[in-house]
Design goal:
single chain, two-stranded antiparallel ribbon, 3 helices, 6% strand, membrane
């Protein structure tokens, strides 16, 4: 059986994912340490936010009762991809910014 969710459902799922990406982007930062390597800055707020987003994703499944399991799975996949991709792109940009500071490297 092929599942075709409404385009509006997919758009809303993508929008929710993008909203989830915002706190992750804001709270993910990088620093160059004394050994010259670049590391993510430790942040309790980031960890709490990330765990809260995972709990929200899985906890909200019980409140979506009008859709079949395949559609719900697809929509949650769209949510996940919609926050992971922007977050990782932003992480790469932030990493490159730190990498370029006080560095003569070329990628």
């Amino acid at each position: 059986k092929t599942i075709h969710p409404a385009i509006l459902q997919v758009i809303i799922a993508a929008f929710i994912g993008i909203l989830f990406a915002v706190p992750l982007i804001v709270l993910t930062n990088y620093e160059r340490r004394d050994d010259g390597n670049i590391y993510t800055k430790k942040s309790a707020a980031f960890l709490i936010t990330f765990i809260a987003l995972v709990i929200l994703r899985y906890g909200s499944r019980q409140f979506i009762v009008d859709l079949d399991q395949q559609t719900i799975g697809l929509l949650f996949y769209v949510v996940a991809v919609s926050y992971i991709i922007p977050w990782r792109i932003a992480c790469y940009i932030k990493f490159r910014k730190v990498w370029r500071e006080n560095s003569n490297h070329v990628i």
